[in-house]
Each structure stands twice: as structure tokens, then as C-alpha cells.
């Protein structure tokens, strides 16, 4: 099971080991420490090893704060006696540990091992006694693969001078299925990260469509891409209005996964695919444009999820819709006060060209609905207001159907992604009534409840169960974080795969 995301990522191979430590062929054995004591696996080591580790812990007052580590030489009986070193790895306090602790530990662990210069190590499955072997090895493997991600595609010289580092990590035998699933999911997350990190002059709507098609064809998904003419002729006037100002033409991307067995239901995934958002004539200030190559993170999450779903083959039909476009300024660009006719027939007065996402999504949602979805999940970097409300770590969840909302929220919880419900408050719909058209795209000068009014706008375009995830905060990280480097996070992939990939 060799996974290579791209040449710039750490390449991690996960393998099943026989008896932990004594019999593994790696030079480094990783042993957890929590609550100031060796883990259960550590306690089970033979006496020699255990003594060596305990005395070193005492001598150096090593308590095992989360992520702290200590490299200890192991007593050797002969030349072929297993690992020469142990890495004591801190898991923190016993109180409040969760599978997220294990996931974060996996990420930190591979970074630590690589920094120490090892290319091969074996690790116990942290907290397997507490959470079960399957769940714990899943979290550890997923964390390791996410933590090993890097982005240096456009650096002509690698600062470490080593190029792509290969790391072979041995995990306990018997966790094969969990590890295989973690590989599929983490690869999908890292694929989404790659798409978000790609610069906008490279990843235009045409290029996004090309990559989506390439991925779909390789994995046996159906794919259909419309060009600007087909988008216009289909009547997607709201979407086309946003796209018309750019020299890079839009592409409407549709992917379909059909299960081999009879499908339980058909779910549509819709992702916001603005490959760059300048704001248009309602221009964003320069600093606000800095992260706007990531305005296609919803699309990236949907494509990542489709990749994983194609591999996992769940018994549910999944259709993905991406209205890819670029929001630019030019003589052909749409302006404030323009009236656009959406695919639904509803007319929309543009009060702000920077509220472009909801215009592209309105037509994508109408189309997804008409194609016969039983329920829709839509992901978008939709509003700065949602970042104000929930910050960088938590996505806003809105729904017109509480049961569907709960199903998505529970999937997110199991997947370890943070989402929190915000109300789709009908009383605020008043703010979107226009004197000129059926709707306006923002409520004008007031900034009150900006995330909610955006969600209400989207909900006007379907009567099907709809979940809208506003991922403007968590889709992009300006600093390195526990599960990976600064840049695209791939947020949403894990939730969608947990929701649909079983
Ligand atoms: N893409 C932005 C939202 C965004 C902001 C994403 C910050 C990530 C970080 C979206 O198109 C936008 O500009 N929304 C406006 C809406 C407003 C004009 C009603 C916003 O949030 O300011
Ligand atoms: Zn915008
Ligand atoms: Zn946008």
C-alpha cells in the first residue's frame, strides 16, 4: 500500500507489523506516554526495554505533554534484535482524550519522525484499549497521512534539500481494513488540498473541469462538462452573470457515481467553485483577496469526496455539481443593479457583485433538484459573516429539513470535522425582497445576519431537503495547524465520505 499524493508530499507507506517492537524490522519503535506513564503497550514490553524507558523518563522528568517526544536508545542483545531506538511520544493527560487526540498524534508523529531523520518506524496504536483497535488505528493512520501532506510544487529548490521524504510506518497487525479506508479518505482530503492550493492562474474553471474529468475517468465515474455556450443556453442566467466578466470562461461540471447494487437514495453534492473572487465591481480590498484562490474549496471538497466514494463503492447514488467561474472586473463584467434571470425563472437584482457565490449556487441547486436528487448537501466558502460568527475552525450548518441536518451534523462529528447549526430564520427573508426583481442578492447596506441571509437566499432555489455548509472559516488556514500545513485544509471531504461512503 504505497501512497504518493504528489511529488512534494511526504510519502507514507503504512504496513501491518507482527508483534509490536520486538519483531518489527524498523530501527525505531514508538511508544505512547500519557498521564506521565507508559501506555499499556509500553507496559507489555519485555523487562529490559521497559526499564530502559522508565529510567530515562524519570531522569529527564518526561511527563509526556501532548506532542512532546523523547528518543531513547534501546538495549541490544545482538545485531538483529529489533529496533535500536524507542521514541516516547506524549499523548497528554488522560482526561479528555478522544479519537481526535489520536488523529493529531498521528500527524505530529510523522512530522517528528521525519525531523529526526528516520525513514522507517513502527508505532503502537495509541489508545487502542480505550477506543478499540479499528477506530484507533483508523484515526492514527488518517492523522499520519494528513500530517504528512506538504505543498512545495512551485518551489524550485526544496529548503530541506531532501526532496520528497519517504517514510514507512508499521502499525499493529489486524488493523488492515481501517488503515486501507484511512488511506482512501486521507488521499481524498489531500487531493482537495492540492486543488485549493493551486494558484488561480493555473487552476482556472477550464483546468478545474479538466482535473475533475481526469479523476472521474480514472475511477469510473460518469462526467459531463458544459462550456459557456451550454451554460447560457441552459438558462443559467445567475451563474452566467457572475462568469461573464472573466477572460477565463466558466465550466459547469457534473459527476455521477452509480452503485453496482440497487441504490438506497440519490444524493446531490453541490460545491462553490469560484477559482478566484476579486469581488467584481464591489471590489474586495487587497488583503481580503489574499485567500480568494480558495473560493473553490467547496468544489474541491465535493471532488475529493467523489474520489473516495468511487473507491469505496457505497450503495447510494451520488451526483456532484460544480458551477465553476471566476469573479473578475472588465467591460463585460456584471454590475450593481443588474437584473439576472436564474434557471428557476426567479429574477435577481444584484446589489453587490461580491455576493457572487449564491448566484452561481442558485442555478447549480436548481439544476441538482431538477435532475432528481432526494436530498442535497451544498458546501461553500460563502460569507465572511460566518467566519465572524464561528471563526476559523467551525463551519456553519443550515438546513430546511432538521432530520437531514442532523444526519449531516452527526456524520461531521464522527469524522472529526466541526460544524455548528445556525438558524434558517424565515423572518429575515424580508431583507432579500427587491422592489425591482423577485429577490436581491444581499440585503444592501445592513450586515446583520449575513451568513443567515445568504443561506436563506440559497434555500429559495429548492424544496428538497437541503443542507448548506458555510465553510468560509475552516476551508483555508493561514497558519500551520494540527493536521497539516497552512493553505487548503480539505475541510468537508471527511464529513461527506462519512455521510455517504459506507
Ligand atoms: N468568497 C466570499 C466569502 C469569504 C470571505 C470566504 C472570507 C472566505 C473568507 C464571498 O463571495 C463574499 O465575498 N461574500 C460577501 C457577501 C456580502 C457582500 C453580502 C462577504 O462575506 O463579505
Ligand atoms: Zn465574493
Ligand atoms: Zn466568493
The structure class reads alpha/beta
Number of strands: 20
From the alpha-carbon coordinates, what is the Rg to the nearest angstrom? 24 Å
Described by its quaternary structure, the protein is single chain
Which band does the percent of strand residues land in?
A: 15-25%
Biggest pleated-sheet summary: 8 strands, mixed
- What's the overall average pLDDT, rounded? 94
Low confidence ranges: 1-8
The percent of residues in helical segments reads: 25-40%
- Hetero ligands: ligand BES, zinc ion
Amino-to-carboxy terminus distance: 21 Å
Q: What is the 3D form? A: elongated
> Order of strands across the widest beta sheet?
8-9-11-10-14-18-15-16
Number of helices: 16
Topology at a glance:
Elements: E1 11-17, E2 28-34, E3 37-38, H1 40-43, H2 47-59, E4 69-73, E5 85-92, H3 99-116, E6 120-123, H4 128-131, H5 133-147, E7 166-172, H6 176-197, H7 205-219, E8 222-226, H8 228-233, H9 237-243, E9 251-257, E10 266-277, H10 286-289, H11 297-312, E11 317-327, E12 339-341, E13 347-349, H12 357-370, E14 375-380, H13 384-390, E15 395-399, H14 402-415, E16 419-421, E17 439-440, H15 450-459, E18 466-470, E19 476-477, E20 487-488, H16 493-500
Parallel strand pairs: 1-7, 2-5, 2-6, 6-7, 10-11, 10-14, 13-17, 14-18, 15-16
Antiparallel strand pairs: 2-3, 4-5, 8-9, 9-11, 12-13, 15-18, 19-20
